[in-house]
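2.7 Reproducibility. Because tokenized structures are sensitive to small changes in the input, we list the exact sequence used for Glutathione S-transferase, including any N-terminal residues retained from the expression construct. No trimming or masking was applied before prediction.
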Amino acid sequence: MLKLYIGNKNYSSWSMRPWVLLRQAGIPFEEVKLRFDSFNAESDFKQAIGRLNPVGKVPVLTDGDLVIWDTLAIAEYLAESFPDKHLWPQDRMRRARARSVCAEMHAGFMALRSHCSMNIEANLSEAGARIWQEQPAVRADVQRIIQMWRELLRESGREELLFGDFSIADAYFAPVCTRLKTYGLPVPEDIAAYMARVHALPGVSAWVTDALAERDFIPFEEPYRQAPV
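Resulting structure tokens (single pass, no recycling of outputs):
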């Protein structure tokens, strides 16, 4: 059976992607959560994940003796293992486009990721307003996301998900939706509507519910708060 090793659901955006993908696609798997106590080499988290993944990061997917790390590698493995789930678009050109935007997310948007770390439980709209005013690179990242999503939604011909039906691309951008919401970053109505559709997906909703239930305040993950509300 597939086993997915993840970090705290409130904070771990990379863990969220394959978890949502598996859950939304209805692929059975066992979840193993490794709490973020510290990222120091001697921490319990690093010791536990280091026994599986030489990079020392989550997520990690195991399938028997096979160990797969890196979110994009996990997504590709699942797409190959479960072709009936159509995790990538079936059209070859659309599939290439989906891979392109996922790779862009995988390697880019560093300003948004650096200044607006994932924190599902918190309302950081005041911090978000300051970030929006002071960080032009964050504004540029959000503008690119808006442009990308609008193009994909228009090309799909349906006001649903990025490629019409649920795909790896939606799982990849689900944590971006939570970031935009947490920090109250301004987006137009059509983009807010897409975000609402993503949050309503059963896989995303289940992750968010679990994240809210954690109530595990980790100070080094909280640059804008001294304590949970």
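The two ends are 39 Å apart (CA to CA).
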